[in-house]
Amino acid sequence: GENVGLHLPTLSVQEGDNSIINCAYSNSASDYFIWYKQESGKGPQFIIDIRSNMDKRQGQRVTVLLNKTVKHLSLQIAATQPGDSAVYFCAENAGNMLTFGGGTRLMVKP
Amino acid sequence: NAGVTQTPKFRVLKTGQSMTLLCAQDMNHEYMYWYRQDPGMGLRLIHYSVGEGTTAKGEVPDGYNVSRLKKQNFLLGLESAAPSQTSVYFCASSYSSPGLAHEQFFGPGTRLTVL
Predict the structure, then answer these.
(1) Structural domain boundaries of chain B?
(2) Distance CA B2, CA B25 (A)
(3) Under CATH, domain B4-98 is a member of which superfamily?
(4) What is the C-alpha separation between A15 and A30, in angstroms, rounded?
(5) Quick check: B97 and A6 CB within 8 A?
(6) For labelling alongside B17, which of A32, A37, A48, B56 has CA 20 to 30 A away?
(7) Chain B residues within 8 angstroms (CB to CB) of chain A
């Protein structure tokens, strides 16, 4: 409902620890998924993507895991830093469009 | 490259006024999109375009119109603004369809308040 979005799920981690952000997607026909990072007052920024023919993809300090059986996507951030504090969104393709999840706020404690 | 730029950055309107938001991209992308983002929520697609001269409705198109007269520009119009249209508006562009695994690049956003 309208009020669900006002209470973003929040993940609080200690600096240097690993972070895992989860996302459930809805369309079993989606074949492309993206993670975006959004810092306060800025537009979303691409982090990493994965196609449905893969179940894992690694970038610099980030890993995306895709489990098509349960329609679940996760973003792992290694050695989390204060600069990683932001809201993270997953997105899945729906034809010519992307559908975005509600987001998770990551807070990094020094 | 400037990437995706949006004009203006901030705007306050009174109910019933009209305005146009301008999005420009210098990456020669075919696809362009307009989203709105309400507090604590994800992005919802308003309209999009798969090429110059074409537009299509997204998830929440009511109360908005768009035009793509030039490949590099995508305009979002509000004919008669309502308080429910208070939001942050983001423009994005991509080389091709998300179905072909092409990421979207976002602009910095326009914060619109309708009184």
Answers:
(1) 4-98
(2) 8
(3) Immunoglobulins (2.60.40.10)
(4) 34
(5) no
(6) B56
(7) 4, 31, 33, 38-45, 48, 50, 56, 58-59, 90, 92, 97-101, 103-109
